[in-house]
Each structure stands twice: as structure tokens, then as C-alpha cells.
Amino acid sequence: MKLVYEINFPDLSADEKVEFMDDLRDSMQTSFENQPFSVQLLAQTLIFTRWWNSYKYMAPKEPTPEILGIAIELLWDFQEGKCSKKEFLRFQQSFSDSALEILTGDAGGLNEDPESEAFFQKYFIPWNSMSYNVFLSYLCTVLEEAVSQNITWDAVEGVIDGDISDTMIDFFETIYHTSNEHNYCTYLDREKETYNTITFARVIVLLQQDMYTALKGIPLSKLRAKYQNEYLFSPEESIKISDYR
Description:
- By secondary structure, this protein is an all-alpha fold.
- Helices cover 62% and strands 0% of the residues.
């Protein structure tokens, strides 16, 4: 069986692409199960860094949340040994407590932890960035898994399913919308049409590229510098993705 980053996604049939995506999380877990935790975390860091480089240009009518970029940088610092485990754990806890309040209204963590409350006041008040909610949610997962040292790949799958395939591709491609006289498409119709676009194939190829790069043993400092300019969509393309919530 081919590893997930070895499959030629653009050459798959429409049905095979749906199957690839249905199996994506399990395939990523299987492909990395024999790799050390550090490599798995690096792969997710590369993927989320690329995504963040594009996300921060999206939704120009909303403020770009500074804290998301700070979290990405701290994730790099942690892996390079520039941030202690204690410092990273403290950041992760405050980040998660704050995100929970934003995403669900549950302020329990903030009420019980003065440091989290201060963190929330500094970085999350006010939160006028609804277009970033999915990214916020799954970046939480990345930070939590960095602490627990258990990579589930839920975060990668979550952003792809929750934002990229569900809404972003429509800004670059015409997606099938009519399947019958009631003028709606079934979920499978939309999946097949979306996954079979040139734009989505590009998304998966870049995802595979990041996974493969994590396996090469390139020094972290060199990778970090390189990934300052790696994008899912270019800044010019990303700015087209606006008001999509």
C-alpha cells in the first residue's frame, strides 16, 4: 500500500479522489506511525505554517488575529528548543481556555485560571474574526497534541473539511450546485466535484509535499526560514477569499 504522500492525487479518478479523502486521516496516521513524534509534529507545523501564511490575507474586512501567528511561531520555538516545555504548556492552556470561550461560550477555564483570563483579555478581546474560527479550533488541537505527544491528524483533516474544501475552492472554481429539479446537490455530488477540481488537487499536492519535507531531516532553522514564504494560496489569491462565513 502506498503511503499518503506517495499517491498521485491529480491522476486519480473522481471516485478515487473521494475515497482518498474519506480515508485521509487514517492514511496519514498509517503513513507516519513508524516515525518519531518529532517528525509527526514537524509535518503538522509545516502544513499549518503554510496555511497560516495564506489565512492571514483572507477576509480583509475582518481583523487578522495576531494570536494565531504568535501560536505558530511558538510552535516552531518549542521544536527548536527556544521555548521550554513549561512555557509552552502555559501558553497552550491559556490559548485553549480562550478558544473554548470564543467557540462555545464556555468560560470555565478563564474563570478558574487568572493567567488564562489575562491572556484572553490581551489577545481575544474583542474577537471580530469569525472567518478564522475553524483555523482557531484546529490550531488548538495542534498545540494540545504537541503537549500530549499524540498526533491524531484530526487538525489537518478538520481544516481541509471545515474550510478549504467546504468553502474556499468555490472562490476559484465553479462547483456543481444542481442535481435535480429542487436545485440542490447531494453532499457526495459536491464532494466529487470539489475534489476533482484543479485547485483542490493543488491543495493536496502541497499537503503531500509538506509531509514529505518533514521526513527529509532538514535543519529546523532552515525549514523555518523557507516556510516564511510557502503558501496554500498566494496573498493575491487569498484576498479573494472574503466574507465566506
